[in-house]
Design goal:
Phosphatase 2c, domain 1; 5-stranded antiparallel β-sheet; globular
């Protein structure tokens, strides 16, 4: 299996600059979305620092003779360690930049990253904040990540909250982000993939404006990933475009050659199937052949009519 991806970011309709960033690193099959925050336009600095730091780390560690900035966690897989370390490194760089530059003080960013392993047939997902990862599989959409928000934290601690009590909670307060503290807790998961799976990474400017069913409809109906991304952005803007909007769509393609049946291989093991194989080949050829008929059929013969189907 292999992963292919497309991404797009849009300022939206109510912001004057874009603080979102995304990265697609095809050779590493790494995909990232970051949503920055902070005064003096420092949010775009934070989100760009995050994506650049993670991408640079993955490029630097493509070989085995590079010293990692953090200890390798033996409880995690190599892929999880790489993703975790990249995000932790991004957090460190954002904190350091925030201290060095007054205009960057207090900046931060959410991040969600997905790393595909064709060898293990898994998608490794790490996130901090409320940028999300979704999976679309066989006509169903699943939110893979849990928002690190004040609302969600309250619901975890007090699941018995009424709808009225929930409505009184501020909806856009996140409780975890890169740049908040020297140390950051990253949520990690490994998802078993299937050919045809589609993963969407997005900022809350998308997930906050579009219902999950709408996302499912666009991703399911549009096989062109670039067009699907643009359609999602357009929908978010149609619904108000209240924030910056970023979408990265990742499609898992299967190895079609493994599903092909070779008649020669079959007959080598089962010579008794030779007659059946030949019959199938003839039937297949007849099914796909184009029927050509003369403009004027011979006398006494009525030309059959074929519809375009």
């Amino acid at each position: 299996m292999r992963a292919r991806a497309a991404g797009i970011s849009d300022v939206g309709l109510q912001r004057d600059h874009n603080e979102d960033s995304f990265a697609i690193l095809n050779e590493q099959e790494l995909f990232i979305v970051a949503d920055g925050m902070g005064g003096h336009r420092a949010g775009d600095v934070a989100s760009r620092l995050a994506t650049d730091a993670i991408v640079d780390f993955f490029k630097a560690t493509a070989s085995d003779d590079v010293t990692w900035p953090f200890h390798f966690d033996a409880r995690l897989s190599e892929e999880e360690n790489r993703l975790l370390t990249g995000i932790r490194l991004a957090n460190r760089q954002i904190v350091e930049q925030s201290v060095r530059a007054r205009e960057c003080h207090g900046m931060g960013t959410t991040v969600v990253g997905a790393l595909f392993s064709s060898r293990k047939r898994k998608m490794f997902i790490g996130h901090v904040g409320d940028s999300r990862a979704y999976r679309v599989r066989k006509g169903e959409i699943t939110q893979m990540t849990r928002d690190h928000s004040l609302v969600n934290d309250y619901l975890l601690a007090m699941p018995e909250l009424t709808e009225e009590q929930r409505s009184e909670l501020p909806k856009n307060v996140i409780t975890r982000a890169l740049g908040m503290q020297d140390q950051v807790t990253v949520d990690l998961q490994a998802d078993d993939v299937q050919p045809g799976d589609v993963y969407l990474l997005c900022s809350d400017g998308l997930s906050g404006m579009i219902e999950d069913d709408e996302i499912l409809g666009v991703v399911s109906d549009q096989p062109d990933l670039d067009i699907a991304c643009r359609r999602l952005i357009a929908l978010a803007n149609e619904h108000g475009g209240e924030d910056n909007i970023t979408a990265v769509i990742v499609k898992i393609d299967g190895d079609e050659t493994k599903d092909e049946i070779s008649f020669s291989d079959t007959l080598r093991d089962r010579p008794d199937l030779e007659e059946t194989a030949r019959a199938l080949q003839v039937a297949d050829a007849a099914q796909n052949a184009k029927v050509e008929m003369a403009d004027t059929p011979p006398a006494g013969i009525v030309a059959p009519k074929f519809d375009d189907k």
